[in-house]
Amino acid sequence: RNGGRDGNSRGGRDGNSRNGGRGKREIKNPLGNYIFLRGLPVESKAEHIREVFGSFGEIVEVDDFVSQGHKYANVAFSSPSAVSACLDKKTFVVAGKPVEVSKRKDPKNKKPKSYTPK
Prior knowledge:
The chain contains two helices and five strands. It has helices spanning 46-53, 80-88, and strands at residues 34-40, 59-67, 70-77, 92-94, 97-103. The radius of gyration is 18 Å and the shape is globular.
């Protein structure tokens, strides 16, 4: 009738098409228990990351992405002790390639507005 432009259809786009439909890269872990991985093999998957880093603690979320031909990942743990344990170990190999691990800095060191300490 109106070519699918009735206000209920977005023409197959979900409004977040700039990042492949994923929207902004934001991990929803209010405690800030993150590590940042640099130098991942482009062919590596989130499962590879979980295999290597899962022994340090419960992984809440893995957000891996490619930027300018390089693969990176943010990994959120359920506890700060898991982050400390990862940072204490200096060498990691994911999918056959050594990767750099650092603590991910929270944007502007602010807690999300919905954060309420227990």
